[in-house]
Write a structure and sequence with these properties.
Elements: H1 18-29, E1 41-45, E2 48-51, E3 56-59, H2 62-65, H3 74-84, H4 99-110, E4 114-118, H5 121-140, E5 148-152, H6 161-164, H7 170-173, E6 183-186, H8 191-197, E7 202-207, H9 223-233, E8 237-241, E9 265-268, E10 280-284, H10 286-289, H11 305-319, H12 322-339, E11 346-351, E12 356-360, H13 365-374, E13 377-378, E14 380-382, E15 386-389, H14 397-412
Bound molecules: pyridoxal-5'-phosphate.
Pyridoxal-5'-phosphate binds near residues 208, 241 and 269.
Length: about 425
């Protein structure tokens, strides 16, 4: 388990010095909308990835939780390969023989009735917002054009014009106006502020049960239950964006489970595609989903049989509870290990399951992540001074210990 070990035959294309050329090509020919670490990956298996030069790294980011089951989990690869040999795409003009099973099994996992399948997380968030507005006009009786959705400070729900309209991150919003109207924001974790913001035109509250992109910000105990209570009392939909927090990451199937809260709709993505392809969905009651009629919403790729085949396997893997249990047990280990980080280098640590936000002092998060990369650990900074750890749930205890050991040494260096 070192960053310099080379691996076997499946990466025999390793070329010393190949990273620089690959990075130059990307920099010359892609939009610079990301600032990746200078590592070029060519292979992945479980919690480990290998770069084009044959160096191995422990992946402590896991595609921002899109890789909860690790790289190329055998069950997921097998499901994809089976489906590749049968049927990959139909569009929703016709039925396919995978969507029904996926929809039923995902609904059961969520304790709901029905799904609306999309591809990316942002699309699923947009879908949930359209669902809420339509419900507001048709069921709640909000006057035309007045529907209001309440969001929270520090939120991250994706990158479309509408979604960045309620972001308070200047990098996400500046230069992209005018914003879509119909959204108001209240401080995250503040139930009283939410209560005050709800009025007769409010159709929904959209929240991350734990804010991932903001740096694994965990609201105080009781907040989710308070949101649920307010939404029920005031006839407002609770939309839980569990794209990053859901599907095992926190040690439960959903982060909302911890407070035994069931939202009116789950918004899912990332790990739903098993790290293989983009799969997202909104999951809700039949009654709520019933506001959509033919022609009112859709997606060419949403519900495609290849995505559904992988999604079915994801749902079945989560159905055993095995991954949630791992995240819970290893989450305790992770929290203990992080408590041993040098106090003079770390101002705060937040963990829930196999998910952590670590605020570093005296150095940028970027600088620490570059140092970690040289040590064979891949992680990513967020908001300047926070390092987010979200290892694949298949990680072994010894690997976790090794990774946090590298972080401890890097911070002490
Ligand atoms: C990643 C993320 C999204 C957006 O998902 P994309 O697939 O990148 O569009 C939305 N909400 C949350 C909470 C996320 O973490």
């Amino acid at each position: 388990m070192t960053g310099t070990a080379t691996v076997g035959a499946d990466t025999d294309t390793s070329v010393p010095g190949a990273s620089a050329a690959a990075i130059a090509e990307v920099e010359a020919h892609t939009a610079a909308n990301y600032h990746p670490l200078p590592v070029v990956l060519a292979h992945g298996e479980g919690a480990w990835v290998t770069d084009v030069e044959g160096n191995r790294y422990l992946d402590m980011l896991a595609g921002y939780s899109a890789l909860n089951f690790g790289h190329r989990h055998p069950r997921l690869v097998a499901a994809a390969e089976r489906q590749l040999g049968r049927l990959t795409l139909t569009g929703r003009a016709f039925h396919n023989d995978q969507l029904g099973t996926f929809a039923r099994e995902l609904s059961v996992l969520c304790g709901m009735d029905a799904i609306l399948p999309m591809n990316t997380g942002a699309e699923a968030v947009e879908t949930a917002l359209k669902l809420a507005r339509k419900w507001g006009y048709e069921v709640k009786g909000v006057p035309a054009g007045r529907a209001k959705v309440i969001t929270f400070s520090g939120n991250f729900h994706g990158r479309t014009i509408t979604i960045v309209s309620f972001s308070d991150d200047p990098a996400a919003t500046r230069g992209f106006g005018p914003p879509t109207p119909g959204f108001v924001s209240v401080p995250y974790g503040d139930a009283a502020a939410l209560d005050a913001a709800i009025d007769d035109d409010t159709v929904a509250v959209l929240l991350e049960p734990i804010q991932g992109e903001a740096g694994v910000i965990i609201p105080s105990d009781g907040f989710l239950a308070a949101v649920r209570r307010l939404c029920t009392e005031r006839n407002v939909l609770m939309l839980a964006d569990e794209i990053q927090s859901g599907l095992g990451r926190t040690g439960e199937t959903f982060a909302c489970d911890r407070e035994r809260v069931r939202p009116d709709a789950y918004v899912l993505g990332k790990a739903l595609g098993g790290g293989i392809l983009p799969v997202s969905a909104v999951v809700a009651s039949a009654e709520l989903m019933g506001v959509f009629r033919p022609g009112q919403h859709g997606s060419t790729f949403g519900g495609n049989p290849l995505a559904c085949a992988v999604g079915i396997e994801v749902v079945r893997m989560l159905g055993t509870g095995e991954f949630q249990a791992r995240a819970r047990e290893l989450g305790v280990v992770l929290a203990d290990l992080l408590a041993g980080l040098p106090r003079d280098r770390v101002s705060a640590v937040r963990t829930r399951g196999l998910w952590a936000g670590i605020d570093v002092m005296g150095r940028t998060g970027r600088d620490v992540c570059e140092g970690l990369m040289r040590r064979g650990v891949l992680a990513k900074d967020t908001h300047g001074s926070t390092i987010r750890l979200a290892p694949p749930l298949v990680i072994e205890r010894a690997e976790l210990e090794w990774a946090v050991g590298q972080l401890r040494e890097e911070l002490g260096a």
